Amino acid sequence: MTSGKEDYLKAIYLISENHDVVTNKELSEMLHVSPPSVSEMITKLQKQGYVDYTAYKGSKMTRKGRREAGKLLRYHALWEVFLVNDLHFSWSEAHEIAEGLEHQTNDVLSERLDDFLGHPDYCPHGDPIPRKDGVRVGITNETLADLEVGDSTHIRRIVEDYSLMDYLQSKNISIDMEVTVKNKEPYEGPILLETEKGDISLSYKAAQQIYVDENK
Fold first, then answer.
1. d(CA 24, CA 76)
2. Residue ranges of the domains in the chain?
3. Which of 89, 180, 194, 202 lies in disulfide reach of 94, CB 3.0 to 4.6 Å?
């Protein structure tokens, strides 16, 4: 399978975690490609049994497609763990490098890497690592921006965005960090967090992309 097809499968997988049917528009926006290019690729993926496409509605992953996409995400996440924990790359650097390495990885290599890393459950920025069958469990959907002043929680995962990752690491934000919302400015203003590392102020936009425990 080409890296292009693999990127489409990953995108469909990730979007479908929020809703089963993925529209061509969503794929076009996520992958930054033209609508005709999306239509052409979806036709190919359907012929190969990775998706079921319904006109004017969108694509739904087949079991075969979900398994293949989950494997790619697993490869990617394992490389991120290695690059951050063992080679001390930043989150954004590791994410970029893993984008290339995932396409060069197979089951044998991934199993040895998994053994070497001690079978991690999460990538460095908190995404659950898919199991060998391609299923990913443990996704949290409540964001830091959803909380009220006085709420305490733990940071669990961060959206894969290069500038966001760098911004949060510069703010000393880490996965599993316990935080308490100390203040929220009105009109989507900054959010002040109380942490063991001291008070940390974050933009509202960043807080919308930080996921926390759903049971505060």
1. 24
2. 3-61, 71-139, 142-212
3. 89
Question: Per CATH, which fold does 71-139 belong to?
Answer: Arc Repressor Mutant, subunit A (1.10.10)
* CATH 3.40.50.2300 corresponds to the domain 142-212: no
Element (H, E) at 59: strand 58-61
Kindly state the tokens that stand for 176.
Answer: 């599993």
Which of these, 126, 188, 185, 177, lies nearest to 153 by C-alpha position? 177
Predicted TM-score (pTM) above 0.85: yes
Q: How many CA atoms lie within 13 A of 18 on its CB side?
A: 9
3-61 matches 71-139 in fold: yes
Q: Look at the block and give the residue holding tokens 């063992």.
A: 86
